[in-house]
Structure formats: structure tokens, C-alpha cells
């Protein structure tokens, strides 16, 4: 991917659509928000590690929207490129060739969201 922002618009668009769903499906969105908070909060494993696991799953499941959100969060949490590459290696191991392609998307998102 080029230096043109790709993931910033994806994250903004999905966030806007989720806000719209909150208006029409408040119970669903409240439950989803609570699930997200609970599953990514600080725990025995730690917030950063939980986000790394979520990113690996997003890559293996081939979800660019999820990749954008989790990489953005990981950048805010201070992930290094070396840590990211370890996550990508495990995701590729678990997901094969298609995960390799989405691992490159995660690298692009990292470059986009990094200061």
C-alpha cells in the first residue's frame, strides 16, 4: 500500500456507522461496547497483549476494519515495529498465505498511525 491514508478513513467510516447503529440498536451497541471494554481491559495478560491477540485474530479472519482499529490502539499503547512483526508472524503461521496478505495491511496501518 502507498503512503496515502487508507486505514484512517476506514476507522472513521466504521465509527460513524456504529454511532448510527447506536441510535437504532442501542441494546446491541451497548452490549457490544461492554464486550469490547471487558475483553480488552487490563487483566492478568494486560491490555497491550490482549490487543495483540485481537490483531492476530483480525489478520487470520481477514478483517481490514478490525486491523485498522486494533493497530491504531496498539500504536497508542506503544507497540514497537518488532513487537508488531512478532504478532504478524504468529498470525501468518495460523492463517497461511491469506494472513500474509493481511499482515501487510497491518504493517501499512502501523506506518499510517505511527507518529
Automatic annotation (TrEMBL):
Any GO MF annotation of the entry: peroxiredoxin activity
Domain spans labelled Carboxymuconolactone decarboxylase-like: 26-107
Keywords: Oxidoreductase, Peroxidase
Keyword Repeat listed: no
Pfam families noted in UniProt: CMD
Entry superkingdom: Bacteria
InterPro entries on file: AhpD-like, AhpD_core, CMD-like
PANTHER family: ALKYL HYDROPEROXIDE REDUCTASE AHPD, BLR3452 PROTEIN
Name used for this protein in its record: Alkylhydroperoxidase AhpD family core domain-containing protein
